[in-house]
Amino acid sequence: KGVGKTFVRGLQRTTALAGVDIEIARGDFVAVVGPSGCGKSTLLRLVSGLVMPSEGSVRVAGEPVVGPRADTGIVFQKATLVDWRDILGNVLLQLEMRGIDSPEARERARTLLTAVGLGGFENRYPHELSGGMQQRAAIARGLVHQPGMLLMDEPFGALDALTREQMRLDLEALWLRERMTVFFITHSIDEAVLLADRVIVMSQRPGTVDHVFDVDLPRPRGLAARNDPRFAALTDAITRIFLSRGVLDEQRLAL
Fold first, then answer.
1. Which of 59, 30, 65, 58 is nearest to 202 (CA)?
2. I need a surface site. Which of 112, 131, 186, 218 has the fewest CB within 10 A?
3. Cα separation of 47 and 181, whole Å?
4. What is the phi/psi pair of residue 117, to 5°?
5. With contact defined as beta carbons under 8 Å apart, do 140 and 107 qualify?
């Protein structure tokens, strides 16, 4: 509520966010889309407790966020797996750091790896896997402690188009099964509409909420969802916002 964030470096002040008001219901899948530098990733870090706001407040389940929360999972753009552990070991690292070590926890780790398409790869090392497979492992790691909320910062941004599409299908299937709250940052309008219950459109820096769109597409949203007229209408509406704000320019010629 009323969240702002200003970064200070010497005499230079950069206001990344100003007057951000967002409310997310438990179990919702919310996507945030906006131009580069509008504060999307900063907003996610504020929700996670990794960064504190300069003004306003962030609350989760009624509690003020004053630091990193144990009931939150985070997946970044890069998988950030540790090279010296196999894939199962990377997922279990999350639990070990929390002091959790039980047969049930290990079984959940294996179940999640199977759910994201990594069954049979538990004993492989990160360098033996593709970028998409590494990111699947990162998602399993983010969910293994059964968080109430999963924060995702452009998790598919470094992947090729086909892998992104498969990851999108896998993530929706996981969300339908786990029903955790998801706060998903992306540059892709299509991805936001295909995944989310609501799409929050951010303005240019200092970022604030420009528009909020409810997504009325039936789930699960398979490959055919792109053919739904409601998908086309929503992506067009969001694109037109960026055109009207000058974020996109159809008339500009390439140099």
1. 30
2. 218
3. 12
4. 85, 20
5. no
pLDDT digits (tens, 9 = 90+) for 193-243: 999 999 999 999 999 999 999 999 999 998 999 999 999 999 999 999 988
pTM: 0.91
Kind of pairing between the strands at 12-20 and 72-75: unpaired
Residue 35 is encoded by which pair of tokens? Answer: 């131009």
How far apart, in whole angstroms, are the C-alpha atoms of residue 206 and residue 6? Answer: 9
Q: In the structure encoding, which two tokens stand for residue 180, read together?
A: 């955790």
Query: For residue 152, what pLDDT band results from cuts at 50, 70 and 90?
Result: very high
Amino acid (one-letter) located at 151:
L
- Dihedral, CA of residue 188, residue 40, residue 109 and residue 94, to nearest 10: 150
Structure tokens at 159: 């992947």
**pLDDT (tens digit, 9 = 90+) per residue, 84-126?**
999 999 999 988 888 887 788 889 999 999 988 899 999 999 9
Structure tokens, 218: 């039936």
The closest alpha carbon to 28, from 185, 199, 173, 253, belongs to: 199
Rounded CA-CA distance 165/191 in Å is 9
Determine the 3-state secondary structure of 74 from DSSP.
strand
